[in-house]
Amino acid sequence: MLSPETLISISQWLTILPGIALIVFGLFGALMNLMIFSRQRFRKASSSQYILTQSIFDMITLSIALLAQVIVGGFGYPYLFSLQSICTFRNYVTLFSSQAALYSKCLIAFDTWASTSRHARIRQWTKLNRARFLILMNILFWMLASIPYGVFTKILLIRNVWQCTIAGPGILTYQAYFFVPCLILFMPLFSLSFFGYFSYVNMTRPTALAHIRQINRQLVRMVLVQIAVTVISFVPYGLQFIYSTVTANWQKSSQWIALDSLIVQMTRIGFFVNNTVEFYIYISQSNDVRFTFKRIMMNLKVIRGGNRVFSIDARIHNINTT
């Protein structure tokens, strides 16, 4: 059996290496989503509005929540949370942005189900004005629901390490028995599974083929793949949460505590996969997304090439004038 020191070292490296990779690839992917789905050929679709919103909150989550976890949990630099204001800001923004992004995925699943429905009243929910209303409600809800995690945030000495965490019996009970199991696990899993399954049923129903041809089938397909990846990634996090809740008051050895820390770090990093993979799912499932991405890359090359030509011409002009 590995020693506690070895387990802690493994936990740190599993936070540093995958964490940095997720930040780099995630920020690039979110930026590409913003550039692709803000183009005219995409932005008139209600699902594109949800994707744009999700990408913005993905960037915030990766830049603040995951980066802080890499610095503190990976490099072991706890002084980042030595100020109460920074600690409060980090906890509030982390919860707000991560849940706004997660429920944007639920809205994407809902939009996919509505757009493939044979009922005209349900398809009305794919209009842009209704999509923007749902986006606004999602943002406002999580702005308010995240307030307790800012108010009850404290800097505590836990296992000889200063940690930024919530404190208080009321908020801990609320988190353990309602907030995490209901709002973070059950509701998103139920929404994604329900709307994903019935979207697939709508797509494969023979009588619906005429209607489905009128919408972007590639968009529906890539959203279904995204739903499947999100649901699968929830399983380790859900199991770890159940285990941590059940064993919270157990007496544990130093080796057991180190092993728990390793498991927690792995599941947390795995959970951030949800904020990273969307662009790569879209580009693998949609010809339109691939085409637009190639156009963006070609335009960037043209701009860089034009800058080099301009700089060469400027140098020639300076030589001729001298």
TrEMBL record:
One of its GO terms (molecular function) is G protein-coupled receptor activity. One of its GO terms (cellular component) is membrane. Residues 29-282 form the G-protein coupled receptors family 1 profile domain. The keyword Transmembrane applies. Keywords: G-protein coupled receptor, Membrane, Receptor, Transducer, Transmembrane, Transmembrane helix. The chain crosses the membrane at residues 12-36, 56-80, 92-113, 133-157, 177-198, 219-239. Its main location: membrane. It is found in: Membrane. It is a multi-pass membrane protein. PANTHER family: G-PROTEIN COUPLED RECEPTOR, PYROKININ-1 RECEPTOR. This is G-protein coupled receptors family 1 profile domain-containing protein. It comes from Adineta ricciae.
